[in-house]
Design a protein that fits this description.
Blueprint (H helix, E strand, L loop, with lengths): L2 H4 L3 H6 L11 E5 L2 E4 L4 E4 L2 H4 L8 H11 L12 H12 L5 E5 L2 H20 L5 E5 L8 H6 L3 H4 L9 E4 L4 H7 L4 E6 L13 H13 L3 E5 L14 H4 L5 E4 L10 E5 L1 H4 L15 H14 L2 H25 L2 E7 L2 E6 L7 H10 L2 E2 L1 E2 L4 E4 L7 H18 L1
Parallel strand pairs: 3-13, 5-6, 5-7, 7-8, 8-9
Antiparallel strand pairs: 1-2, 2-3, 4-10, 9-10, 11-12, 12-15, 14-15
């Protein structure tokens, strides 16, 4: 009996909670930035599992790290520590501002820890009244009830009953709005240093600096959500390093494990002391398998040549998209940093980002959307020039099929 007759797409509708609507094809194998489905059809991967597969599929660095750790120890819980977790934590402090690390399993969990730390710090250092969290419209910070409420997209947080309170949403890149609202009751400002889900929007340098300055003026913490932008995605190891603005707390996940689930909250020694024993925790956080893989990923990506290669690939992809735009007049803007790129559709193509995603899939290309009007590209950070060229050719065919 073949794999295809054993597991079919119809089984999803039969056994899975219907909060996803996956493509009809089922991938079964991947190598680099190419995957193959059950029928053997080949796809170029410009989606990278939503900015997760930073080294592509089955990279030998990750396979070797996982295989080696799989023969040692799999799980301990935080009643004990383990060598891979300590090695990874040390490495993360070396590549960032941070002095202390808390491990979780996802970006949402890392953000949950960051928000809890901010509230706990404010309570213990400034009193009960300092509770407000400011975030930004169209921001995205995860799907737990706290993080989805802090996220600035009501469609994701409405319909679940009373929401966590004292959360304010302001326009992104609007210095005056922030200046007018922030106060000494604000305990933290949470922002993405490049909005991903919200449309691939970069902050101006002036806005990023103003957020830092206003936080300092009002004794508020600055939390950078680098779940999507971190681990080399923008061509810096963390995006804050390209902005010249340092947060107090940083969350990272997605590409941290290159496909193995792991998240982390990074902060300073001074702030970390408010997370005393018993205040927060995670059964799986710091799992040896996850940390061994992530350590290998971080060691590889943090090499200067790899980070420089991200910016080189950004240029290849943006040039290719510009050429397609010259041919089809479809994009109003091509933006983003590194390999987090958004192509905003022009007036004639409004609302058709998903049409392009579906047509691309039919033509052997996997990509993403960021809302109804932005096509999003988050490929492997080591994708080859040939794979980029193949993917752009498939995107050309997909757009042509929609004319």
């Amino acid at each position: 009996m073949s794999v295809n007759t054993q597991v079919q797409r119809s089984l999803f509708d039969e056994v899975m909670v219907p909060c996803y609507s996956p493509m009809e094809m089922i991938p079964v194998r991947g190598q680099g930035s190419v995957i193959w489905d059950q029928e053997g059809k080949e796809y170029i991967d410009f989606a990278g599992g939503i900015a997760v597969s930073c080294l592509g599929h089955c990279h030998p660095v990750m396979v070797e790290a996982l295989t080696e750790q799989a023969h040692k120890i799999w799980h301990l819980s935080n009643v004990m520590t383990n060598e891979p977790a300590l090695r990874l934590a040390k490495k993360l402090t070396e590549v960032s501002f941070a002095e202390k690390v808390f491990f979780a399993n996802s970006g949402a969990e890392a953000n949950e820890a960051a928000l809890k730390l901010a509230r706990r710090w404010a309570k213990e250092t400034h009193g009960e009244e300092k509770t407000e969290i400011i975030a930004f419209i169209q921001g995205f910070h995860g799907r737990t009830f706290f993080t989805v409420t802090v996220g600035g997209q009501p469609a994701y947080s409405d319909g679940f009953g009373p929401k966590p309170g004292d959360i304010t949403h302001l326009p992104y890149n609007d210095i005056e709005a922030l200046k007018a609202h922030i106060s000494d009751k604000t305990c933290a400002v949470m922002m993405e240093p490049l909005q991903g889900e919200g449309g691939v929007l970069s902050p101006t340098n002036e806005f990023a600096q103003a957020v830092r300055d206003l936080c300092d003026q009002h004794n508020a913490l600055l939390i950078f959500d680098e779940v999507q932008t971190g681990n080399g995605r923008t061509g810096e190891f963390y995006a804050y390093q390209g902005l010249g603005v340092t947060p107090d707390i940083l969350s990272t996940a997605k590409s941290l494990g290159g496909g193995f689930p792991i998240g982390a909250m990074l902060t300073t020694t001074e702030l970390a002391q408010h997370m005393k024993v018993g205040v927060h925790g995670s059964t799986y956080g710091g799992n040896p398998l996850a940390c061994a893989v992530a350590d290998a990923v971080v060691n590889y990506i943090s090499q200067p040549a790899i980070l420089a290669g991200v910016k080189e690939r950004e240029a290849w992809l943006k040039e290719g998209l510009a050429a397609l735009n010259d041919k089809y007049n479809i994009f109003a803007d091509i933006r983003g940093k590194g390999l987090l790129i958004g192509a905003e559709l022009n007036q004639e193509w409004q609302g058709r980002a998903r049409d392009i995603l579906v047509a691309s899939g039919n033509n052997g290309l996997l990509l993403l959307v960021a809302g109804a009007n932005v096509v999003r590209f988050t490929p492997s950070l080591v994708i080859t020039k040939n794979e980029i060229d193949q993917g752009l050719a498939k995107l050309d065919q997909a757009i042509a099929s929609l004319l």
